UniProtKB/TrEMBL annotation:
Reaction(s) this enzyme catalyzes, per UniProt: [protein]-peptidylproline (omega=180) = [protein]-peptidylproline (omega=0)
Keyword Acyltransferase listed: no
Name of this protein: Peptidyl-prolyl cis-trans isomerase
Organism for this UniProt entry: Algibacter agarivorans
Signal sequence coordinates: none
Length: 275
């Protein structure tokens, strides 16, 4: 009886091991990628993770890090050429929210750059099927990194708003735009001063998201968004004008209550006093 039970268990284990054979996808994928590179005469670089990438154009703009938000145009296909997804106009995403091959691979390009990512399964969807992608598949993406962190988009939006409203705006080295209607004749604040400012905050479509009373509100400039910390210092006490602030100097990639991620914010300001 004991021998029969042992034989039955042995048969079951042998059967499972045959049906559920463990596949060495990293090695298999690496060989598949190298064959694809050779067949297509690609100048590819391999990273420590096993990702391969081809830089066709490095790009002239900002280089993202793995926590950045990006906009990427892409075409995704398997090594046999079968396309499983594409977006020619661009896909907005945070690099922490995508497959690891993208999280790493997109950072090798600058804004405006283009190339190819050749991604093994352990950096993509692993050994399980995903939608139309079979488990263990190598994924290839032709990519164009359109924007990083809203900077270019925001600058285009602000420039268009300035042109449409015929504003005489100045741009600082940080990307902040400002319009001085009245410079003022009092004290000029530094970035560490306390100030009292009457203001109206709105988007480029005119929607108001915040507004002070005529008596204004008091702040320490070090405790505000960077667009205010910098922008208020261009005025003197009694001065009025407008700050046109890109997201990287305001509420960034995440936004805040009532202000969507990546928003340009405008403020009409009256610098009432410098304390």
């Amino acid at each position: 009886m004991k021998n029969s039970l042992f034989i039955l268990v042995l048969i079951l284990l042998t059967s499972c091991s045959k049906n559920d054979e463990i596949i060495d996808y990293p090695t298999q994928n690496d060989e598949e990628i190298k064959a694809y590179i050779a067949t297509n005469n690609l100048n590819a670089i391999k990273s420590n993770s096993g990702l391969y990438y081809v830089i066709n154009e490095q790009g002239p703009g900002e280089q993202p890090i793995q926590t950045d938000r990006v906009k990427v145009a892409y075409k995704g296909y398997l090594t046999d050429g079968s396309i499983f997804d594409e977006n020619a106009t661009g896909y907005d995403t945070n690099l922490q929210d995508v497959i690891r091959g993208w999280t790493e691979g997109i950072t090798y390009f600058n804004e405006g750059g283009s190339g190819i990512l050749l991604i093994p399964a352990h950096l993509a969807y692993g050994s399980s099927d995903y939608s139309t992608i079979p488990g263990g598949s190598v994924l290839i993406f032709e990519i164009e990194l359109i924007y990083v962190n809203y900077v270019t988009e925001n600058d285009e939006e602000i420039s268009a708003y300035i042109a449409d409203n015929n504003l005489n705006a100045q741009k600082s080295s940080t990307g902040l735009y400002y319009v001085i209607d009245e410079l003022g004749d009092g004290k000029q604040p530094t970035e560490t001063d306390n100030v009292t400012v009457a203001y109206k905050g709105y988007f480029t479509n005119g929607s108001i998201f915040n507004e002070s009373t005529a008596d204004g509100a008091s702040f320490n400039l070090e405790q505000l968004i960077k667009g205010w910390t910098e922008g208020i210092t261009y005025f003197k006490e009694g001065g009025t004008g407008t700050l046109l602030i890109p997201a990287h100097l305001a509420y960034g990639n995440n936004g805040t209550f009532g202000i969507p991620a990546g928003s340009v914010v405008l403020f009409d300001i009256n610098l009432l006093s410098v304390n």
